[in-house]
Amino acid sequence: MTKIHCNGKYTHHVGHAIMSGAVIVLLFFLQSQYNCTGAMETARIQECVDIKSDTVRLDCFDKLTGRKPAVTEKTPLQLEHTEKEQETPQGQPSQPSVLSKDWDLDKKERHFAIRSYRPSYILPIAYNFTPNRDYILDRDSNSKAMHTEAKFQISFKVKLLQDIMDKDVDLWFAYTQLSFWQLYNKAFSSPFRESNYEPELLLNFRTNYDLLGLKGRIINVGLNHQSNGRSEPLSRSWNRIVANLGFEKDNFDFLLKTWYRIPERADNDDNPNIEKYLGYGELWGFYNWGGHRFGLMVRNNLRAWDNKGATQLDWSFPVPFIENKHLHYYIQYFNGYGESLVDYNKSVNRISVGFMLKDW
To answer: Are 257 and 242 spatial neighbours (Cβ–Cβ below 8 Å)?
Structure first.
């Protein structure tokens, strides 16, 4: 056994040898770790390089280097959109409802503008299976109306006053014109068979109450005048006090329209007993789905004996390959009394096809 002296040269050389060996082992360990880490980093870089999406590839390099993504400032338009999303109550639709747009119910977007009232449309083909044979186009020639004619309607409203006496009440003026045009009756110069003119003055009460699962949004009260502007014996006119209620639920809209005819003298009444045929009100229902709009109108005089009424079915849908989103195909079916004033006491059975200006 070799005896080692602490102060000897042999001890010194042995210490240097041990330290040198330790350094070599440490360097070898570090080198292997570096090679391993470098290989892993190279593999990660290659994974990022192989990503095709620019956005995802940049995100990969940011994560690899530990860099945090830069915070981009939102444009004023983006900030406005974000604020509107934050202001939308939870569970409520982000877009205003049909009634809200029609009657300007949203306080943040309320303004004076011409808006649609009833649907505006043109129906170039309006075929009447049961035309009024008592109606004569030309009294001199005793000409009759053709089964096929064109039918069109123009309707709008404009707000005159809003927030009357600081209440949720607005004053509106509305106008509707419905015309029947014997477009294909070339033998008699394609005359207009009938036109009805209907101005209205309406107080609209903005409401928000629940009734049988429906949300009550509007109550209209006002005056209505309807006439055809003709001379006797084809003159027709009447004046009414109207009261209408509007409800909505999801994609459904319901309108209950009621009226009371202002009495006239018997010698001045050119459409006597019109209530017998048109009753005292009508119910409208609409359903909106995927750009399609389905409508149903029901009217009845509510009499057990001599019951009379009318039904109208509507279907409008987008016109393909046309960028104008406000123009829709429109199919209308009407059966019953009161399609026009001149035919108020004659039953009509009509199918019509054409175009509608989208009003929702």
So the answer is: yes
